[in-house]
Specification:
Blueprint (H helix, E strand, L loop, with lengths): L1 E5 L3 E5 L2 H17 L9 E5 L4 H7 L8 E3 L2 E7 L6 E7 L1 H17 L5 H19 L5 H20 L10 H11 L10 H4 L3
């Protein structure tokens, strides 16, 4: 499979390389009619899919390229159980870092709000993150988001006063167990979801 990718916003897959190149040329011509052009650095043709790993290994080209789309980095991989091809999706690292940064800033701004109010807000943020990014194979990134969000909450609570240093991770555990959901997959694999 060959994929034409444009700016992380537009991805189209084709079975044959010639079809993908033809589409890319047609897209460039269509955009040219409106006075627009494809940016060479942001538009690329990627070999991706079931046979990409073997094909690139035969040509000594290394691992297949990855691409970012809809908040996920898509990676050609093999399942541990049987060695068959699978597409691994994980949260884009840059997006994860920026989201954590905004959560930390919001926690710092609201650090003097009552503890239950902070906990409800953080629960909503973490659960919303899990609802979108809860795909199979992304558990590690979801768990990292949860842990870092809780660390940011602890840091904000400790800044409330000079006496905040006695607030330990162990004391915060009861609030975490009560309010903050654990990372779990919320979306099944596509072949399970689309069965009728």
């Amino acid at each position: 499979m060959y994929i034409v990718r444009y700016c992380d916003d537009f991805v189209v897959g084709f079975q044959y390389r010639s079809d993908a190149e033809q589409f890319r040329q047609a897209l460039a011509a269509r955009m040219g009619r409106f006075g627009l052009e494809l940016h060479d650095d942001k538009t690329r043709l990627i070999e991706f899919g079931r046979f990409a790993i073997e094909n690139r290994k035969e040509r000594d080209e290394g691992k297949p390229e990855t691409f970012d789309f809809l908040g996920f980095t898509h990676i050609c991989a093999k399942r541990k159980a049987d060695g068959c091809f699978t597409i691994r999706r994980k949260t884009i690292a840059k997006r994860l870092r920026s989201k954590l940064s905004s959560v930390r800033q919001a926690l710092k701004r609201g650090m003097h709000r009552p503890l239950p109010e902070q906990a409800k807000w953080l629960r909503a943020v973490v659960q919303g993150h899990f609802n979108y990014f809860g795909v199979p194979g992304n558990h590690q990134a979801m768990d990292a988001f949860r842990t870092e969000a809780i660390k940011g909450w602890l840091r904000a609570l400790r800044r409330r006063s000079h006496k905040g240093s006695n607030l330990t991770w162990q004391r915060l555990q009861k609030w975490i167990r009560r309010w903050i959901p654990t990372a779990r997959v919320t979306h099944p694999y596509p072949n399970q979801r689309l069965c009728v």
